């Protein structure tokens, strides 16, 4: 493969790689080659419109853009207009729907009460005091100490068991600071300044981001197959898994992966909202995504079909797609070793969720890539 005259090679066309390529091309004015092993750009944020129904499918699960970072918002809006979708999540417990994250409506519906905002804190303290948790030694105790056992059991325990395949009593108390609980009827899932879904889909955003003369995207190319053909002086921005880069010499980092069961159903609306969570362990699904709800601006009145993804989670094997880093102590130790080796390489920059082994939202990786390539100077 020809890399003649190319100073920069970006590995991976997700948000970190695509923003980096755009900045190198338009800010530095340099030529850049993007290598992507999949047959599409966009990484895990990729989406496309189903031709029969005009429903936008988020291939790797629901992606809602949200940020309070003005720089990131202004930047991403250069590549496409966002709609006014506002995310809300319903969770089903014992066959009944509740709103998430836990808020006054959830609490009142669950306990059959009509608490006022100023009464919630004392009420939850009373619930948690029943359990007498002083110094929580695990996640279960930490959450029970905050909201009491009944809410924890209904909305946290089963979901966490399914998401992490680990009993919360075996998870450290410190993995979350505090469970987000709202003492009002605000049922919006996010509380950022800006939120939405690209009107023409994420695919369109990525195409616009990479459609510049100085950028050449090579799809279906695994970096490791062509690595030896890249001249030594080339700067490589690597957004693939960091352990793979070093051929797993300190061992594999542990990931959770997701499986999606797709269904096309004869309903104009199957579940009434984009995402429904299943809180109880008896239901094997974690959540169901119904994509037509992401575009309130599209007229679907002639469409009596809907597309849903039912999501389950499990530990990733080597060939599975990595979704969420598990981050056990042994992973942290391995990561430190990989990071030390990475720092010794002069011409390779590691970035993005796989390159850093870290969960990032889209706006985080965009912000990090912009920072690295001096957005604002060109
Ligand atoms: C289920 C789920 C839901 C999410 N929902 C949201 C959401 O609602 N809102 C939000 O802001 N964020 C969300 N995220 C986070 C979002 O997916 C990430 O922030 C984003 O994907 C990070 O982009 P990235 O470029 O770092 O990585 P990726 O998108 O994973 O891109 C990395 C790319 O590198 C390529 N690659 C890897 N190795 C090689 C190789 N050897 N050669 C060539 N190419 C290679 C991969 O194929 C991939 O395309 C969600 C994440 C998950 C798991």
The secondary structure category is: alpha/beta
Query: What's the pLDDT, averaged over the residues?
Result: 95
User: Which stretches are low in confidence, meaning pLDDT under 50 for 5 or more residues running?
Assistant: none
Oligomeric state of this protein: single chain
Explain what you see.
The protein has 378 residues and is an alpha/beta fold. It has a domain at 100-175. Helices cover 31% and strands 20% of the residues. It is built from 12 helices and 16 strands. The protein has helices spanning 15-28, 70-77, 104-111, 117-129, 139-147, 149-164, 201-210, 223-226, 242-245, 329-343, 352-356, 362-372, and strands spanning 8-11, 32-36, 47-49, 56-58, 65-67, 89-93, 96-100, 194-196, 215-219, 235-238, 255-265, 275-278, 287-290, 306-315, 324-325, 348-350. The chain has a 7-stranded mixed sheet. It has a 5-stranded parallel sheet with strand order 9-2-1-10-16. The longest helix has 16 residues, at 149-164. The two termini are 31 Å apart. The relative contact order is 0.22. Bound molecules: flavin-adenine dinucleotide. Flavin-adenine dinucleotide binds at residues 11-17, 35-38, 43-45, 61-65, 222-224, 239-240, 258, 323-324, 352-354, 360-363, 365.
